[in-house]
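Researcher: Last one for today. Full complex below.
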Amino acid sequence: MKPHPATTAVPLCQLRPGTSGRVCVLQGDDDFCQRVREMGFGESTLVTKVSGNTTILCQVNGTRIALSHGAAQNILVAEIAGSH
Amino acid sequence: MAQPSPNAAPAGSAAAHRQPVYALVGNPNCGKSTLFNALTGLKQKVGNYPGVTVEKKMGTTYSQHGQPITVIDLPGAYSLAARSPDEAVTRDVLLGRRADTPPPDRILCIVDATNLERNLYLVHQILDLGRPVILVLNMMDLAAQAGLNLRVGRLEKSLGIPVIACEAVNGNGLVELRLAMSRADLPLARHAWDVPAPIAPAVSELAASLRENDGKLPLSARAEALLLLTDQDSVRVAGSAALSPRTAEILFAWQKRWEGEGMDWAGALVGSRYEAIGELASEVVLQTGAFGPTASDRIDAVVTHAVWGWLVLGVVMTALFLCIFTLAQPPMEWIGDHTALLANWVKSSMPAGDLRDLITDGALGGVGSVVTFLPQILILFFFIGLLESTGYMARAAFIMDRLMSRVGLNGKSFIPLLSSYACAIPGIMATRTIEDAKDRLVTILVAPLMSCSARLPVYLLMIAALLPNDRVSLGTKVGIMLLMYALGTVGAFGFAWLFKRTLLKGAPPLMIMELPPYRLPRIKDVCLHMVERAWIFLRRAGTVILGISIVLWFLTAYPKAPAGATPTAQLAQSFAGRAGHLLEPAIKPLGFDWQIGIGLITSFAAREVFVSTMGVVFNAETHDENTTPLRDALKAARWPDGRMLFTPLVCLTLMVFYVFAMQCMSTLAVVRRETNGWKWPAFQTLYMTGTAWILSFVVYQAGRALGF
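Model: Here's the assembly. Have a good evening.
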């Protein structure tokens, strides 16, 4: 559940393509957080960034999800070391 | 205060006699439409839910014993806590809140087997509703390819409801599904789920109040209570009733208390549901193979690539427009010819008189001009259906998102804007998947600026008049045409930017969009989709245009000129002609005279009417639809002082005017329905036509100053 103390959380848009991370904090308004959680993107979910740095593409639970830059900035992930 | 909810109708006598009603629900992209088509075939009724532009699809299927069963195909949703008008309809139908739709007796939940956990979230909410549910695990073939082994029996046992493994695309599992649907009794779900302890008392208190004060059924009251806590009811659609004061009071008191304690109740509810689902999924899903890059991943590497992606999109768009403008030509001519034949037949078989003119010039002329665009609309929808069913459409929206975000919209606005190149009506209808109300409104406001196919005849006539000698190359003509399309597109983006910064200020768009795996398109489904859309277009545009055509005919036919007057003289002194004279001072600075003014007035019904009106004004004696004589007639037109009326500059100015002016009653009617009032259509007319006037003024006056 909790992010590893050694890793710092970065917005999903800053994760390097090909690396994975665990969602640790969701920012933004209630509506946004609710929808992100309902789409299976809640805290502790494993995310793999596929491509992009403005509009980004990622893989969550076997699904491809596109996020606009603003949305990706609101999702903070802890990078999993060595996942590259 | 308590209103009898449609839910509360006695379930006994009436329900026993009427057909059982199944609601089909699932996440977007889980194969719901394919299953619906497979179950109901051509026995579908497509309409709209009153008050919202959300498509209502109902169909009939038959049980194993040949008994008819009604199936309602609900819009795809991720959650019952609705975020868009689409999802609100799904929520309201399932909860029996809509008086216009029978509350479903049973629910068919379809899930994508490759992504069970996420899909089960909606199922989990639906199991709370206290109705019998059949769970359909679709795309079992893809799950197997992804190395997933699903223990269907285990899932069935855990949930206590029938679970059917299925591949809707090739019909596997349909027999088993039909068998399950035919069962006289279905068990209710064994649905063990613990609401987080701090929230549980609120749920029971709200459920009790919903039963007593809001007339909810005991079985669904708990689900309604849970929904109240996760759904801020941000999306209310027509037909859903407000909460009773007592329930609202209880809800508010709890929310205040939790806020004081710093608790995120909505998040806690979602989290506990996912926990329960996670446990279930870990029992049911066995990962046997390793995840390697799938075919979809390999295609995506090219199609969503920062450079190649644009190239692919460009090729697809070019192909789309080439098809719309070339393939559609012969059938459009065929329709035009046959409308003319029909009108001639009416003319020859009826005695001359107002009734005959009403039918030929009013009804047939007006409706015929709209039906002419049917081939283009069909091709557009075939393409859009193809792009959607292969999964490419979501990628196009992904690629466009970056560009769209520059003007404050997100990628989801791309599809409505693209459709608007054919016709703004389907474009505006396609905005219903945009969650954010402001983004949706901005998209609706700018969609009619995309040059629709109704502008095409106007552009063609003006280009013909603008470049009188046939020696001008085709390239120049196409170039001018493309310039007009570009002008409209730039205008749409410019105004979107402006509106998002001033009138409809909103946070930067947050788009979360699932990209479905690529699939081979199912041509049958694509054609079905195309026919449905075309029918809606015909019905809507046909009825509105028919009414307005008749009114316009009246305005051009009355008051009557003395007997023996030419049609041109008749038009000059008709109501429309007088209005044209009245309008002249306003349009003279644009280089237009009162005769063009008549065209501007009549083409308020639909832009292409301008061409036929010019035919009546300048070329009435021959009644020839062919543009070549009309072009010559336009060349011969003069101002009273002998100056040429249709100078190249005036033609160009007219085109610019038509790029921007809001000249389409059908679009306004759709916008009114979509925005629930006349405020936004009125604003749209003002800003578009205002811009058209200003830009035409600038073009004409600058052109004059430069000596053209």
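Confidence is low (pLDDT under 50) at residues 1-6 of chain A. Residues 30-41 of chain A form the longest helix (12 residues).
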